[in-house]
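Morning. Coffee machine broken again, so started the prediction first thing and wrote up yesterday's gels while waiting. Chain of 88 residues, entered below exactly as on the submission form.
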Amino acid sequence: MIGNISIWQLLIVLGIIILIFGTKKLRNIGSDLGGAVKGFKKAMNEDVSSKKDNADQDSQRLEKESTEDAQFNQSSPSEAKNKDKDKV
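Came back before lunch.
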C-alpha cells in the first residue's frame, strides 16, 4: 500500500539512494533537472508572448484596413460619379 508510507521509510529510501549514487551525482542530477524545468518555463513564456505579438499585429492590420475602407467609403458622391464616368 503506497498510501501508508511513513516518514521513517522515506528517510531509509533516501539514505539508500545517497549511498548508491553519492551526493555529488545527486547534486548534478538536481541541477540538470532544475535547468530543464527552467528552460521549459522559458519556452512556454516565449510561446505565449509570440502568440500575443501575432494577435497584436493582426489587430493592427485589421484596424488599418478598416480605416482605409472607411476613408474610401466617405468620398464625395461627385467623386464617385466622376470615377464611374472614367470607367465607361
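The longest helix spans residues 23-73. Going to sketch it on the whiteboard this afternoon.
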